[in-house]
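PROTEIN DESIGN WORKSHEET
SECTION A - STRUCTURE
LENGTH: 159
TOKENS:
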């Protein structure tokens, strides 16, 4: 399990004075990029392969409030990876300094070719690193069907 610690700043709270929804997303994103960097996936390294990460969804579940100045820990567990590395899934948990679980998020994403703007498998060097990611107990090999497991599809707006 990967852990990243933060302190809740003024800019992280909403009108109710507690940690804002958008701050959870920002903390998760920052934690993921730190995780990737420590796994050999730094942004400069990723860019040499002309790929970039994209988020498909983030499903948040909130359990307990947290307020300005409070330390929080964001954890990451890799819960899914496709055979070619194109798709990935993370589980994030947020904890306060007492170890209480503040929130949980399941996040799924993939890698795109930055020229063609299409999903792509990872190059061999990055795939070898991804296969070494520490995995959660619920880890599974992902397929394209997993990207549609919630049955949500795009709908055009009626004009």
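SECTION B - SEQUENCE
RESIDUE ASSIGNMENT:
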């Amino acid at each position: 399990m990967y852990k990243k610690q933060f302190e809740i700043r003024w800019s992280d709270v909403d009108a109710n004075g507690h940690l804002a929804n958008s701050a959870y997303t920002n903390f998760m994103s920052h934690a993921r990029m730190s995780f990737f960097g420590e796994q050999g996936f730094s942004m400069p390294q990723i860019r040499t392969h002309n790929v970039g990460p994209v988020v498909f969804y983030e499903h948040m579940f909130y359990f307990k409030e947290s307020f300005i100045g409070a330390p929080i820990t964001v954890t990451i567990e890799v819960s899914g990876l496709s055979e070619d590395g194109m798709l990935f899934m993370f589980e994030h948990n947020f904890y306060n300094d007492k170890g209480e679980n503040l929130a949980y998020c399941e996040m799924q994403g993939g890698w795109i070719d930055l020229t063609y703007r299409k999903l792509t498998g990872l190059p061999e060097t990055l795939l070898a690193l991804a296969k070494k990611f520490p995995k959660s107990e619920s880890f599974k090999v992902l397929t394209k069907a997993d990207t549609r497991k919630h049955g949500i599809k795009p709908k055009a707006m009626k004009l």
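SECTION C - NOTES
The first helix runs from residue 21 to 38.
The chain has a mean pLDDT of 95.
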